[in-house]
Amino acid sequence: MNIILFGPPGAGKGTQADNIVKSFNLHKVSTGDLLRDETSRKTKLGSKIKSIIDKGSFVSDEIINDLIEKILSDKKYYNRLVFDGYPRNLDQAKNLDLLLKKYNQKISCVICLNVDKKIVIKRILGRQTCTKCGRIFNEYFNSPNSANHSCDKKFLIKRSDDNEETIIKRYGTYLDKTLPILEHYKRLNLLHEIEGKTEIDDIFVKISHIIASLEA
Predict the structure, then answer these.
(1) DSSP state at residue 163
(2) Among 30, 1, 3, 7, residue whose Cα is nearest residue 194
(3) How far is CA 141 from the centre of its chain?
(4) CA distance 174 to 190
């Protein structure tokens, strides 16, 4: 199955995507990860991406779509994907429809985590990522400690764009760009909306029930 996971910045998409991957043996597709991977490998495309990002510009849909097609064309990921925060606009959604058809795949469900702006701000301002193991913590809701994190504290970082002004702007962009996509998937009868301000484990139970119902 292929699943799309939506939610505003700080909704917990990454955490829930990781939970889905582990529980259902799927592969996470995050455009941020794809862009970082391409730049780290120092390919011609990676250099182009780095130049765009360094200038503070957005990477074009064309580049993003090419990276997504690389994943969809890889047989080891066939119908085993969790899209984390992609597509980001209606054009990307329509392009994904075409790519899925091209590679004889489909979206099984679209899950949207609904979280209000106040909670989003607190979640993002407190977010910490371990550069060694990749785990994500939050100093307000899920702080790293000796029981849940074995890496040294020096590996914990905050993203440079995790500030209130940027968060509010990204939240507004999400509402503006993503709501039309949700309507698109609602019309296709694929959309499931979940209250995203409850506990991580409770949210995942709801997500698991949705996925299990698809497998039944």
Answers:
(1) S
(2) 7
(3) 20
(4) 20
Q: Tokens 């969809």 map to which residue? A: 72
Of 185, 15, 39, nearest in space to 100 by CA: 185
Give the chain's domains with CATH numbers: 2-116+177-215 (3.40.50.300)
Whether pTM exceeds 0.85 = no
Element counts in the chain: helices (H) and strands (E): 8, 8
Question: Would you call 128 helix, strand, or coil by DSSP?
Answer: strand
Q: How distant, in Å, are the alpha carbons of 122, 153, 192 from that of 131?
A: 21, 10, 32
pLDDT band at 82 (very low <50, low <70, confident <90, very high): very high
CA 78 – CA 53 distance, rounded (Å): 30
Q: What would the two tokens of residue 154 be?
A: 């020096």
Question: What is the rounded CA–CA span in Å between residue 186 and residue 192?
Answer: 8
- Give 188-210 pLDDT, tens digit per residue: 999 999 998 888 899 999 999 99
pLDDT for 43-53, tens place per residue? 888 888 888 88
SS3 labels along 31-44: HHHHHHHHHHCCCH
| Spatial distance between the Cα atoms of 52 and 136, rounded to a whole number of angstroms | 26
Where b means 16+ CB within 10 Å and e means fewer, 143-156 reads ebeeeebeeeeebb
